[in-house]
Phosphosugar isomerase (Companilactobacillus kimchiensis), 397 residues
Amino acid sequence: MEKGFNIMFKKTDQELEKMGAIITTREIQQQPKLWQEAFDNYTAKKSEIDNFLDKVTSTFPNQKIRVIFTGAGTSAYVGDTLRPYLNRAGDTSHFVFETIPTTDIVSAPLDNLRSDDPTILVSFARSGNSPESVATVELAEKLIKNLYQITITCAPEGHLATKAENEDGNLLLLQPALSNDKGFAMTGSFSCMTLTAALIFDTSDEAKKAAWVDTMIKMGDEVISREDEIQAYADLDYDRITYLGSGSLSGLTREAQLKVLELTAGALTTIFDSSMGFRHGPKSYVNGKTIVFDFMGNDKYTRQYDVDILEEIKADEICEKVVGVGTSDDNDFSGDNFFIKAGDKDLPELYQALPDVVFAQTFALMNSIKVNNTPDTPSASGTVNRVVKGVTIHDYE
């Protein structure tokens, strides 16, 4: 395939239709607008959110409350991205933040749910119809004496949303209508749900949060406008892709690598890790046909470790390309960087994660075309589905 063929966002709808890529392309492209809508929805619901949390904390003034972020696949990675930052910026005097996938809860409920611990179960779901999502809620309601729920979902007609509508102790927060992705891969659903939960539990000043969202939106728009630079990476000669990061951006690496696996139907292999953890064995994955990306955070201390691994891999001369992704700061990688110029070096990594994921989604989209796949329906065999099928939920007594 000729280089530069799969620059996507400037193609006409007709061109994208022929490529089987119109849904996924437009859903990636529209995300910055959806973030504004998600922020406006949060602002409109803020008093209701505050009242909900105040009720829970006042009921248990001398006891910390478990906040379990749960979901399956991409929805689980929302929690992985949230938790590190919220351990610093959330209300840790009242809450203990945890991430437990629905798949872990359903398969081993007593390993993950504690009867006597007051708990807020935060369910993330695009459709709200995945069997594990439904079963997790049922198990939590059966096993936890003092259970509260926040349901963050994109489909008002989904099982979780309709169930939550009329339940006391269950706060339903619907995401922008267009975040209910129609494509196979979750894109806007991931970023909107992540943003909503960040805004709920981040104790930072509301004016700061508004400014961060504004910066995020500008960054996301910039990433979309610079697709030709992302395409230049996609034109390189590789068959392995590595994503690294620290803190919340380490959590994001799981979602970044999943997009490649999903949209290429596994034609390209991927790996993810923390910047520090990569040396401890997983670095063995890197060979001459590997491209390595590191999401560089803005925390000055932590960024040193992101830059260290980038410099090390560059010096090793063992891969096709190694790239730093993020905002330029005093400590930058000496090699190739995709710096988002609209970024702010004081932007917390959780908010940096969303323009970063647009970069990763765009790269995955281009790779889907590169391997002659159709991004909107990438699993030709039908063995992997938009809403998971084939799951048996066994009775729990």
